[in-house]
Amino acid sequence: MPQLGFGVWQVTDEEATTAVAKAIEVGYRSIDTAMIYKNEKGVGEAIKNSSVPREDLFITTKVWNSDQGYENTLRAFDESLERLGLDYVDLYLVHWPTPQFDEYVDTYKALEKLYHDGKVKAIGVCNFEIEHLERLLKECEVVPVLNQIECHPYLSQKELKEYCASHNIFVEAWSPLEQGGEVLQNEEIKLMANAHKKSPAQVILRWHIQNNTIVIPKSVTPSRIEENFNVFDFELSGDEMAQIDNLNKNRRRGKHPNEMNFR
Ligand SMILES: NC(=O)c1ccc[n+]([C@@H]2O[C@H](COP(=O)([O-])OP(=O)(O)OC[C@H]3O[C@@H](n4cnc5c(N)ncnc54)[C@H](OP(=O)(O)O)[C@@H]3O)[C@@H](O)[C@H]2O)c1
């Protein structure tokens, strides 16, 4: 799986075709969508039109909260596959644990079936806290390959990252740029950006990459799609990495997973 991918939350079906085509042209090979983004069709269109062979692309989608449960998940997966126009996906994720409905273990068992049947190459989760992961590790067989969680310099997720690392679960950062928020105006990050002749977004993406985090920035702006991919020709020093680590405010843009009960 490429460490840098392309996210398409809040991108319409139509925009997704154009944005994903641009991303593939720039060099991205990993695309992160979800049933609830309502753009699987647009993403699939870009994949179909692309001259890059399917096996060189890494496509992720997710089962939404209202489709949880064993049978529902199997059906939702087939529907996602049909919208994408694919015969397999590379990674299928449980979108949120929604613990109050207590269906995530059964949902994950359906992902294990899809994995054993060869319909998905890998399975994982999003927004799982340590207690949710512990339960999966106890009650299921296949260790989730990754946990996709909100993570950026204002929410560094140190403890959860350490837990994942100790169980061989990769961490993938969603909203890696804090949804284009205040962190891009942070003075310390701006100084580092100037020193490296890079943008604040590039410095933040580089921080994720040097932390061994998988990262999926979203943009519908062609110049930014390109800019965000251009982060492999410079390196942050140990001091700069530590300085960004110190910006943590435990401040979320999204909901805490235990408070997400929207279906
Ligand atoms: N599993 C989950 O629960 C979950 C939740 C949220 C997101 N995700 C995934 O993670 C992906 C990324 O997260 P996200 O979309 O929330 O936020 P993000 O990637 O942190 O930020 C996207 C925002 O930043 C702007 N932006 C992008 N590149 C920029 C740059 N170089 N300079 C300045 N601004 C820039 C974009 O604007 P423009 O588009 O206008 O250029 C957009 O408004 C999503 O698309 C989705 O695939 C998953």
What would you note in describing this structure?
- The chain has 263 residues and is α/β, with parallel strands linked by helices.
- It is built from ten helices and eight strands.
- The chain has an eight-stranded parallel beta sheet with strand order 1-2-3-4-5-6-7-8.
- β2, α2 (40-49) and β3 (58-63) form a beta-alpha-beta unit.
- α2 packs across α3.
- The two termini are 29 Å apart.
- NADP nicotinamide-adenine-dinucleotide phosphate (NAP) is lined by residues 7-9, 32, 95, 126-127, 148, 174-180, 184, 199, 201, 216-221, 224, 227-228, 254.
List the helices and strands and how they pair.
Elements: E1 6-7, H1 13-26, E2 30-32, H2 40-49, E3 58-63, H3 70-84, E4 89-94, H4 104-116, E5 120-126, H5 130-139, E6 146-150, H6 158-166, E7 170-174, H7 187-196, H8 200-210, E8 214-215, H9 222-229, H10 238-245
Parallel strand pairs: 1-2, 2-3, 3-4, 4-5, 5-6, 6-7, 7-8
Helix pairs in contact: 1-2, 1-9, 2-3, 3-4, 7-8
NADP nicotinamide-adenine-dinucleotide phosphate (NAP) is lined by residues 7-9, 32, 95, 126-127, 148, 174-180, 184, 199, 201, 216-221, 224, 227-228, 254.
The gyration radius over C-alpha positions equals 18 Å
What percent strand?
A: 5-15%
Give the overall silhouette.
Answer: globular
What ions, cofactors and ligands are bound? NADP nicotinamide-adenine-dinucleotide phosphate
Q: Helical residue percent?
A: 40-55%
Number of helices: 10
End-to-end distance, in Å? 29 Å
Q: Strands of the largest sheet, in order across it?
A: 1-2-3-4-5-6-7-8
Q: Return residue spans where pLDDT drops below 50 for at least 5 consecutive residues.
A: none
Tell me the number of strands.
8
> What does the main sheet amount to?
8 strands, parallel
Round the mean pLDDT to the nearest integer and report it: 98
SSE string, helices as H and strands as E = EHEHEHEHEHEHEHHEHH
Category by helix and strand content: alpha/beta
